[in-house]
Every structure is written in C-alpha cells, then in structure tokens.
Prior knowledge:
Strand content: 15-25%
Oligomer: single chain
Largest sheet: 9 strands, mixed
CATH class: Alpha Beta
Number of helices: 7
Distance between the termini: 23 Å
Order of helices and strands: EEEEHEHHEHEHEHEH
Helix content: 25-40%
Structural class: alpha/beta
CATH architecture: 3-Layer(aba) Sandwich
Strand order of the largest sheet: 1-2-3-5-4-6-7-8-9
Shape: globular
Amino acid sequence: MHFTSETLLDDGVVEREFTLGEIPGILWTPASASASAPAPLILMGHPGGLRYMRSRLTGRALRSAADGFATATIELPGSGDRPPSAQAEQARADLRRTITAGEPVDDELVDRLVLPLVEASVPEWQAALNALLALPEIDGPVGFSGGFISIGIRLATVEPRIAAAGLFAGSYVPRRMFEEARRVSIPLHVLLQWDDEGNDRQAALDLFDAFGSQEKTLQANLGGHTGVPAFAGEDAARFFARHLSRAAVPAGNG
Length: 254
C-alpha cells in the first residue's frame, strides 16, 4: 500500500488516497485513531467510479468517523481509471438494450453482469483488508457497507475478519448467490427501496429470507433507487456502532 495524498477534513478526520498495486483507494481515519487506540474499520462498497462517488463516500466516511470508525474503499475492477473490461462493457450494453426494449433480464445476463465482478473484486478487497489491518492505527472488528450486494455476500462467506455487514438490495443477484447467502452467519442490516426501478422487489425479499444469519434486519422504505431517506443512514450507523464498537465485542473476538 502506497499513500499518494493526505488531506485534513472536518473534526480532525484524515483522508488519504492510496494505491494497492494498480488499485486506487481512499482511507479515512478519525482523529481518535492511534497506535495505542486503533480504530475499527468499515470497508465501504460502491457501484464503481470513485471520482463520481467521491462526495457521497466522503459523507458516509465522516459519519462513521464520528462513531470512531476508520473507513476505506477501493475502485472496482473495470471502473473509474482502471482498465476497462470488454466482457463487462458488453454485459452492461446488453442490459441497457434489454431494459430499453422492456424485456425481462434473464439469469444468463445477470450472471455475465455480476459473477465476473464478484470473482475479480473479492480477492482485491481481501488484499486491501490485509494492508489496512497492518497499519498501527487500524484494527478489527471489521464491517462491510454498501456496494453490490453480491460482493457483500461473497465477502461475508469467505472473509472471517468481517463481523457485520450493511447491504443494499439494489442490484441484480445471480441465482447461485442465493446458495452462498444461506451460509452467511454474521449480523446483517439490509436496506431495500420498495419502489426501486432497477430491482426485483420479490427477489430482494427472497434473498433476505435466504440469509442464514440469526440476526438480520430488513429496512424497507418507499421510494426509488436514489430516494433513500437520510434517517436510513443513521439506522445503519447505529447497526455498526452495536457490532463494531469495542465495548460490544467480547474479549478475544476483535
């Protein structure tokens, strides 16, 4: 991990851009984080395009910093300034044509659209997690928040360092991910926009039912994909405060 810039934000939050190999990312650490008092970490997912998403990601990071959490994100494969993927571009073009024509989005197209991204991005998130936890001012427990829900599902099944996840039911989910969801056991907070124009509501409800977690909460709000109410972010923050704050983690689990 190589840090390329450092900026001091409100309330002493430090924002640092970094590269991990050829992967760009951003780390936000609260003023309270130090080697003697390292901060828990939230990995912050997004739909791709760090430059485009920058202001929203910073807002989420500042909210997490207020609770004493560090936050980090990385650019997705094929997005932003990373080399494009011809396979992904073709799948996105096929999706646009299908939606424009008013045709149903079939399983084959969803698989082409999502599964290669999951396979490529999850190892990168794990590599980023390795590098971030090596920093003296950051330690577990670790949460995962937002982004493509299929990436969150895979991370929750393969990465034991992730203690809780806040997921957004706003993207297409391959059928095979439902089987992986049954193996998820960590606490979950799932956000669903009831009128999301790009999401199959019943599929989202079926996915929530499939999750194997003993503690899982579904928060459904009226409105489309971009109509998430402000209080939904506060509810998600309280979820992470319950599960990532050191006082909430039994000794030996951090």
